[in-house]
Design goal:
heterodimer; A: 472 residues; alpha+beta; 10 strands; B: 303 residues; mainly alpha; two-stranded antiparallel ribbon; two-stranded antiparallel sheet; 6 strands
């Protein structure tokens, strides 16, 4: 039976190298204990191939002889199934988060229920008509009515303008998010190339993989996507079946103004010009806010304005101005929609033109004012099923319900995501006590390996220097 | 479950945040006294609060309207009571002038000037104003109700310068009340006695010593008084009705104000208890977090 004289020293050397490498990995883990997105790395030590593999012409030995240890791999710990799930649920959460933030702003614009909101102004407006029906010949009462009517118009218009500003804000965010998707796509492509090269050299690019996962996590906040990891370490990203990144190819998106939708932005693929389709993520949240929620709110405000105009104007026009001999013929509100709505300037210039009477030359007649005041309880909206007040109150409830839904959905989604993230963190996170223990383990093994080398050294010393000197 | 070092601090931050958020929300409620800060706190509650607010503001307007109408009616009533008293006096003068055959013309003339005084008094009452508006002019509130045609210093006849307009004021939803009484209904109704003409005739008959005609005036003055008294009692009924409506409005308003407070206001005792609880939870969370973060590490014991 033969083996190399220095065989034992070789085992010691491999042990030293392996334990030192293991300690380095542990140090890397400790150094990154607080790094976001870092996956702890595990060293797998494996016994090297033994001498005398089984064969017919093998040497006769009592058993196979071990040849020491080697680092077989340094792998990061990460559950890629779980990661995929986290990405999907993050997208759902991000959509609700966007909606929550915008709908919260809508609630601030609405300012209900307070004494400063539109409901109060509307009440004051109707009360002013009642007041005019009692004091039809009082110019001060007429002026109060006109200024309250202007308050209602201003408040409706400024709410509408604020909501429109919010729409534009959502549109700006949409544009910058699409830009960000492009940046992420090109970074993922670059990482693909690097990772592929590393894998080709059989060195697992753990930290690059972490970086790519971080980018994918961010991408998942913006839009839903499908990710496929190939065996060669390349990662393909498709959004609704259309490729964003594949191997070393990256297909950018472009933002175009949509003439069908107020020139708000839409995203298109630069290669075939098809429209980007997404269901989750901030893009979906922003689109829903910009194209569904806000236009809906604004159109309801417009309906309210039209309801007031269409019900008050004809009654007013048929009435008689103060001391007038003929019907006034003047509308109370001019304009054709909320944006153009205004209190008739002829009335504001001359309050006596307000038609409070139903009879000619009757200064004490307030019956037309009363007829208008009674429109407060007339079913003038929603196809004759709601009063102006009911319509607006239901609108407030709708704003509240939408916002509440987004808050509740976001809360549950956050619970889900943070549960999944905890699972992943529990797997990938660094535990300092554990790393300490490993450090001790590898350190002890390293020290013992030094002993092995020195024992072999002593043995060889005996062999070389002490042998063959019998009888000298 | 394996616990990583990050997991501990992440969870501490997350939990403290949840506790603090709850604490802030409760603090907001107790410090503003309002349960609903924004519609999403309770969408249907917000809808009802606004709806109740609208109802309250309408009731308040009805209350203002009915106060105003009551003032107007009271003024009308007191003017007409004056007219009623004056006519009663005219009636008793007519009785004296007709039944006492021993009266000399001088004494009849004295009676006549007293009747003239009553006529002037009633003429003035018929032009009563409230806040600068003529009570008996119908819609023509800016114009005096009656215009006298003078013969020398005395009233020869009186013409109505108002119209028959009756202004209606809403005092509860769908319930209106006539605010004014046109003079034409009280003083010169189409199917009734012309109060002014009656007095002018009585004065002139007394002056002419026509005791037979004065005797006829006993009945007419009484009918004229009755005509005015009827309107006074109608006004009295209306005042009662207004009082009833006013009480009704006040009761309704109380109910609604209560409801609004229940819907919109924070139930302070329970909110404060909740706030205290949330505060305790937060303190406890801080304490236990501090303890966990201070747990010794393995390296503390390694040499």
């Amino acid at each position: 039976m033969f083996y190399s004289t220095f065989f034992g020293i070789e085992i010691g050397k491999r042990a030293l190298e392996s334990q030192q490498m293991a300690q380095t990995v542990v140090s890397h883990n400790i150094a990154n204990a607080a790094t976001a997105g870092y996956s702890r790395q595990l060293v797998s030590l494996a016994a090297t191939d033994p001498l005398n593999m089984a064969s017919l012409n093998r040497q006769q030995t009592p058993g196979q002889l071990g040849t020491g240890v080697n680092v077989s791999s340094i792998l990061r710990v990460r559950d890629m199934m779980l990661e995929g799930q986290i990405q999907r649920e993050t997208g759902v959460g991000a959509a609700w988060d966007t909606k929550k933030s915008y709908l919260g702003q809508v609630e601030q614009i609405v300012q209900e229920p307070t004494d400063q909101g539109l409901s109060q102004s509307l009440e004051d407006f109707w009360a002013a008509w009642q007041e005019l029906s009692v004091y039809p010949d009082d110019i001060a009462v007429r002026n109060v009515l006109l200024s309250r009517a202007e308050t209602v118009v201003n408040q409706l218009q400024s709410m509408d303008a604020d909501l429109e500003a919010l729409q534009r804000q959502a549109d700006q965010a949409f544009r910058s998010h699409v830009e960000r998707i492009n940046e992420l796509g090109s970074q993922i492509r670059d990482l693909n190339v690097q990772i592929n090269q590393s894998l080709g050299m059989e060195t697992p690019p753990n930290d690059l993989l972490d970086k790519r996962d971080g980018l994918l996590r961010e991408l998942s906040e913006l839009t839903d996507f499908e990710g496929h990891e190939m065996t060669n370490g390349l990662y393909a990203v498709t959004i609704n079946g259309h490729t964003l990144v594949q191997d070393n190819i990256f297909v950018p998106l472009q933002v175009v103004d949509d003439p069908m939708n107020n020139n708000y932005a839409m995203a298109q693929w630069s290669d075939d010009g098809s429209t980007l389709v997404y269901r989750e993520g901030k893009l979906a949240g922003l689109t829903e806010v910009r194209d569904t929620y806000l236009p809906g709110y604004r159109s309801s405000l417009n309906d309210l304005a039209l309801g007031l105009m269409n019900s008050i104007n004809p009654v007013h026009a048929a009435g008689y101005a103060l001391n007038a001999a003929a019907p006034s013929g003047q509308v109370f509100f001019t304009g054709i929609d909320l944006q153009t709505m205004a209190v008739n300037p002829i009335l504001t210039a001359d309050p006596t033109q307000l038609a409070a009477a139903t009879q000619a030359s009757a200064p004490g007649d307030g019956s037309n004012a009363l007829a208008i005041a009674q429109l407060q309880s007339a079913l003038i909206l929603s196809g004759g099923t709601q009063t102006a007040g009911e319509f607006y109150q239901e609108w407030i409830a709708q704003v509240g319900l939408d916002s509440e839904e987004s808050q509740v959905r976001l809360d549950t989604q956050n619970l889900l995501v943070s549960g999944l993230e905890q699972q992943q963190e529990s797997l990938v996170g660094v535990n300092l006590d554990e790393e300490m223990t490993n450090l001790m383990r590898y350190q002890d093994a390293y020290q013992a390996a030094i002993r092995v080398v020195s024992a072999m050294d002593e043995m060889l010393n005996q062999l070389i220097n002490q042998m063959g000197l019998v009888g000298r | 479950m394996r616990i990583s070092t990050n997991l501990v601090s992440n969870q501490i931050i997350e939990n403290l945040n949840v506790d603090l958020e709850r604490l802030t929300a409760l603090n907001n409620q107790t410090s503003t006294g309002r349960r609903i800060q924004r519609p999403s706190d309770d969408p249907l509650g917000a809808q009802r609060v606004t709806s109740v607010g609208e109802a309250i503001s309408r009731l308040e307007q009805y209350q203002r309207n009915s106060t105003y109408v009551t003032n107007w009616i009271n003024a009308t009533e007191s003017a007409l009571t004056g007219v009623n008293d004056a006519l009663r006096r005219a009636n008793s003068l007519a009785v004296r002038g007709a039944n006492d055959a021993t009266l000399t013309q001088t004494e009849l003339d004295a009676l006549a000037s007293e009747v003239n005084g009553i006529l002037e008094n009633i003429y003035q009452l018929s032009n009563t104003t409230l806040e600068g508006r003529y009570l008996f002019s119908g819609y023509q509130t800016a114009t005096s109700s009656y215009q006298a045609v003078m013969a020398g210093t005395e009233i020869a006849s009186v013409n109505y310068t108002g119209d028959a307009g009756v202004d209606q004021v809403e005092i509860d939803q769908g319930q209106t009340v006539n605010k004014n009484l046109p003079g034409s209904v009280v003083f010169q109704p189409a199917a009734g006695i012309d109060v002014f003409a009656t007095l002018v005739a009585l004065r002139d008959d007394l002056r002419a010593g026509n005791q037979a005609a004065v005797a006829a005036a006993i009945a007419t003055t009484e009918t004229a008084r009755q005509q005015v008294a009827d309107q006074v009692s109608i006004l009295g009924n209306k005042t009662n009705q207004l009082e009833g409506v006013g009480e009704n409005l006040a009761t309704k308003k109380n109910g609604l104000v209560n409801l609004e407070s229940q819907l919109a206001d924070v139930d302070m005792p329970s909110a404060i208890v909740e706030l205290k609880t949330a505060e305790n939870i937060y303190t406890a969370a801080l304490e236990s977090s501090a303890r966990i973060m201070n747990l010794p590490k393995l390296m503390d014991f390694l040499g």
